[in-house]
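Good morning,

Both structures are done.
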Amino acid sequence: MNFISTRGICKDEVSSAYAIKTGLAPDGGLYMPTDIPSLEVGELRELSKMTYPERAARIIGKFLTDYTEDELLEDALGAYSGDKFGAHPAPVSKVDGGRYILELWHGPTCAFKDMALQIMPRLFVRALKKTGEDRTALILVATSGDTGKAALEGYRDVDGTKIQVFYPTDGVSRVQKLQMQTQEGKNVCVKAIVGNFDDAQNGVKRIFSDAAMKQSLGEAGVFLSSANSINFGRLVPQIVYYVSAYCDMVSTGEIEFGDRIDVCVPTGNFGNIFAAYIAKLMGLPIERLVCASNKNDVLTEFLTSGVYNRTRPFFATISPSMDILISSNLERLLYITLGQEKTREYMEKLKDEGKYTLSTEDFATIREHFVGYSADEDETRAMISKLYKEKNCLIDTHTAVAVVAQEKYARAEKAERKILIASTASPYKFARDVYTSIFGNENAPDDLESLEKLASQTGTQIPTPLASLLTKAPRHTDIIELGGMDKAVADFAKA
């Protein structure tokens, strides 16, 4: 299977290895497969009897056809080993009635990004070999919190690579910041920037499109690539856990093969929910995709009105991984539903005018699959408290946004299908906000004290990777202005 750009200016088809190696297409578009492979009920029955690594190898292999079955299984077994993820990398737990939570935070950095970023570096290294690449790959990452640490951990000391992460200095939680600041490895670099996530993401995209920068790095034997979900190598492993969750729900008797379910995802850059959409297009019995937004509800507005407007106020919230106004993977949805020409037109309008409005017909096409609901800060806090006190279910701030959206969806549309809610981070990654939501602000502990206080009050355990932060000293403490990103990249590439 080959890959093409979402924008169609560059018409060349490339292999999956090449798409993973380069990340972005030359015309600024995102790579997508030329076809979506199918997934029949009979194959779902087979998958239900497999382990998670076996499921991952099978699903990923449908897209990365220039990788062998043995290669993918070896990579999946290494990525999703028991010492990294425990007995099951992505278990499903029942909340009540028809609500289920897909727990995606059992990996080494306690966030769903591990599900992709533990296997992606393995796929990336193979891509370098398959394409005959002998230069050093510099992985550039903009993060709103979780991607940065997961990418750093995944690419740490991987041969043939360097990784540099930029994050908004005041736009991540204290725990997220410490995770990045204490990162070990000889090939890693972390910089905080003065600005928000969109500033960091725009800076990285600008560097990718800078011809002079590329030439200068090339002369030093370095080329740029990405670990953000704009890279299809990051997106394809996310398809796996939706298929796996469906199989698990069948295996436990919660549904039968062929039963249709809804899926609700807390959404920032649109990659996670888009992976669920691809699973649906493959044939997984998903009916509606509920896109959950926080106070930065640009996606809710889009899925309600057909207007995407990034020129709106930006809010720093207690669910910082969703504090995004430019959802890059939405471009993939435009492409797959509307085609290259319309995608290019809409993306040009977004660049030039800061917004675009779908035609009535185009909007109706997208609404066949997606709905959007949002949660403000008070609703998010109230849901954390409600689920813990009523269901003994401890969730983080992002998952709480999704549960609020799920309840609004159920009321507004009288939805009766069983629904799978993606839980994207351990509650301990946002321990202070979770603690104060449940127990109040009086004598509220600081971010690190909250880890122990939350464990003590709820009788749960601090995940080992987060408990270790209590004794680690920061190593990466630089804060730079936006204008300093180019120099920071050049200096690190040549170091």
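Second structure follows.
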Amino acid sequence: MFVLAATGSAVGLGNIWRFPYITAENGGGAFVLVYLVCILLIGVPILAAELSIGRRARRSPVNALRSLARSDSGGRYWWLFGYLGMGAGLLILSFLSVIAGSAMAYMVRTAGGVFEGVTARGAESIFIGLIGDPERLLAWHTLFMAMTTVIVARGVRLGLEWAAKYLVPVFFLLLLLLVLGGYLFHPEAFWQGVGLLFYPEFSALTANGILVAMGHAFFTLSLGMGVMIIYGSYLPAGTHIGKMSLAVAATDTLAALLAGLAVFPWVLGSGLEMGIGPGLVFQTLPVAFGQTPAGSWFGALFFLLLVIAALTSAISLFEPTVAWLVENKSMGRPRAAAWVGGGAWLAGILTVMSLGPWAFDFQFAGELRVKGMFDILDILTSVIMLPAGGLAVALFAGWVLYRSRTLEALGKDGVRFRLGYLVLRYVTPLSLAAIFVHTIGVI
């Protein structure tokens, strides 16, 4: 059950709308190969570190870092990174809800045949019409946030475990149906997509592509936000954290590869170009579905897939702050969930309004161009807060906690785990520092 819950947290919108694009742009199978190496060198060590911290402390991220730092004589201020991770999670939740609400709106429209025969310009007009209507966008944002709040308020057993038990299997079922649909309606494009994913074009893989793979390997596992620390606090004492971390990373990677096989055939088979981010999901793919027989049904399934991916991620983003409120403010879980959901809902209004009436466009000195609050929050969290949180966890587990306790928490004191410990102490921090410097340089 834990693997399903952690996979639900890790499998987010980035796997659906970002992984296919960055793979196609950076050498296909060569990028996938580098990505897999980065998962092992960056993602799995930090994931294992966060889980071990949570299981040992049995507390929310802030309290876990505070108590373990005291017990291992590790200094007084590590708990601040717990707040940093919680803050990043809430900010991501605020704009994730707006995106998920848009996906809900598109699910209804696609099922109703709105995109049948639509042109690229028509799809763009529909998308602009949605994000330019703050009342409609706010209604969908409110509906999604209310759904998430209700699930979290039900508790770990009836909320988190329910979501893991039912939503994650449905997510993978929908992915497989979309892969099957792409194969049936666009067989040539399907095999072209297989080639993109698994045939390495090393000449197309640049140093920047390697850094992109490193960054995605970190972000795809929901690291740096305290999510896996709180999930680790729910693990039974005898759980083998090393094997569990590998299982979560493998399942998340499988989801990313299936997403590529689900997206490539529809886009390439319709003669369209791969879009970036929201452009791929809300403008390119609707045209592809609209040009295909039964495309309305497959399109509706695709947007349902997005909603489920966003919902499982949103549930996990709630959890660290809800747990902290329960521990520190003596709140009941329903009340804590209402406070977190209400705060994220209010913050999401900024994103809703900046897509329409409060829209702006600003070009930094570097390559970065900011077009609204969504971009600002995305940059603040992904460029600064999450890498800083991940780096703090790697340094905390590798250099602050007693070495024997870290090895014990990983499940076994053997050669493989000693090697993993060395990776956590040296390779992972240096890799995260490289990601941070690269992304800051883009600005």
